[in-house]
Design goal:
Blueprint lengths: L1 H8 L16 H69 L1 H64 L2 H22 L1
Helix pairs in contact: 2-3
Length: 184
């Protein structure tokens, strides 16, 4: 535990200008490397990510606007249905003797179908918004992953020489062979 603490304490220590060499202390170099990589990703990916999110936001806003228009039309249909209902109620008073129960059934069917239509439109709007949000999140995740993967591959390709590359491939082939034997 003392070594771990010492390695964090020594992060503030800088060697004199005359010395040069490789720092093999993993705890001291990884946070620096991660900070540099994250800084580069944030610096170069911020604009792309911002544009993607703005475009997605506009699509979602357009979808919401369209859903609101559908809702407005549904409200108009509801008002027409209510006007029709009032008309049916007046006719019901006139023809109460001849068919009061039939008119009542028509009224209930009309109200039920209107409410079902409104409910379906509201569900459609909510599903559309949820779908657009999930689509935007998935698209952004995929692009961030792609950028990170390209950055990592670029870093690996620039850091590996042929000998180290061949040794790494051989070690991985050996691991896959061992895994295959274990599975079989």
């Amino acid at each position: 535990m003392k070594n771990v603490t010492d390695s964090f304490v020594s992060l503030g220590y800088w060697p004199f200008a005359g010395s040069f060499g490789f720092n093999t202390d993993i705890l001291a170099t990884n946070p620096i490397n991660l900070t540099v990589v994250l800084g580069v990703l944030i610096f170069f990916g911020k604009g792309v990510l911002s544009d993607l999110l703005d475009n997605r936001k506009q699509r979602i806003l357009n979808t919401i606007r369209n859903s609101e228009e559908l809702r407005g039309r549904s409200i108009e249909q509801l008002e027409k249905a209510r006007a029709r209902l009032r008309k049916v109620e007046m006719e019901a008073d006139e023809f109460q003797v001849n068919g009061y129960s039939e008119i009542e059934r028509e009224k209930l069917n009309l109200i039920n179908s209107t409410y079902k239509t409104l409910e379906q439109l509201e569900n459609y709007k909510n599903e559309t918004i949820h779908f657009e949000q999930q689509s935007a999140i998935n698209e952004v995740r995929q692009q961030i992953f792609q950028q990170a993967l390209e950055g990592a591959l670029g870093t690996l390709n620039s850091c590996l020489n042929n000998e180290l590359h061949l040794r790494t491939i051989s070690a991985n082939i050996g691991m896959f062979g061992t895994m295959k034997e274990i599975i079989d």
